[in-house]
Amino acid sequence: MGLFDRLSRVVRANLNDLVSKAEDPEKVLEQAVIDMQEDLVQLRQAVARAIATQKRTEQQYNKNQTEANQWQQRAQLALSKGDENLAREALVRKKSFNDAAVTLKNQLDQQMTNVDSLKRNLIALESKISEAKTKKDMLKARANAAKAQKQLQETIGGIDTSSAMGAFERMEDKVMQLEAESQSAAELGGMGLEQQFAALEAGSGVEDELAAMKAQLTGASPSQTALPAADNPSSTPKDSVIDAELEALRNELNQS
């Protein structure tokens, strides 16, 4: 194999590959239908020309056939009048028109066959174009669906799900940290009045036991040792009310 043959094959192969890659199914199908419609127009024109030619041939055939019949009648007329020479001349004319009619008849038969063949081809092409249009629409729909699916897959493939999930995990950890800090702050800042009384109530058993021990040592009752009365001459009227309430509480405790 020569060098130029190899180069030619390489060039043709590369061109075919470029053309194949550049082919858009939708555009190729549209162009194919356009080409078929152009062929249909040309075929219709050919059928029209063939029919016109057939009609002219048919007219010429009928004309020559009529002329041949007329010269036949003239030959009979001349012979009936006893003029054989004129009758012979009429028969010569008749033969000329008759021969032309026979030739035209053969042409007419051939033209009729051609017209019938062209008409069948025209009908077949129209059917193919109709089928091609339907198939074109189906293939275009499939091509568009395939393009959309390919674009979707490329979009999904280009998404970095690992980084997105990592962001969710980081945010979840941060929310958990905020919740823990909020709970700690609530525990540290929640030692209010109720918590203080709860602490006092929890430690009352120890205090009672301590008061009882002191009473045994001093000979006084546990209630007197635990809650001694106190006077505060510098107390305000408001403090006096509170002291009175405390005294009432002491008396309740002593009586219990």
Please characterize this protein's 3D structure.
It holds the Pfam family PspA_IM30. It comes from Stanieria cyanosphaera (strain ATCC 29371 / PCC 7437). This is Phage shock protein A (PspA) family protein. Residues 26-74, 101-188 form a coiled coil. Residues 218-238 have a biased composition (Polar residues). The chain is mainly alpha-helical and 256 residues long. The chain is built from seven helices and no strands. Residues 225-233 have low confidence and may be disordered. Helix 2 packs antiparallel against helix 3. The chain has helices at residues 3-22, 25-80, 84-158, 161-189, 193-218, 222-226, 237-255. The protein is rod-shaped and about 195 Å long. Among the domains are: 14-157, Helix Hairpins (Orthogonal Bundle); 222-256, no CATH class.
List keywords for this structure.
single chain; 256 residues; mainly alpha; Helix Hairpins; 90% helix; rod-shaped
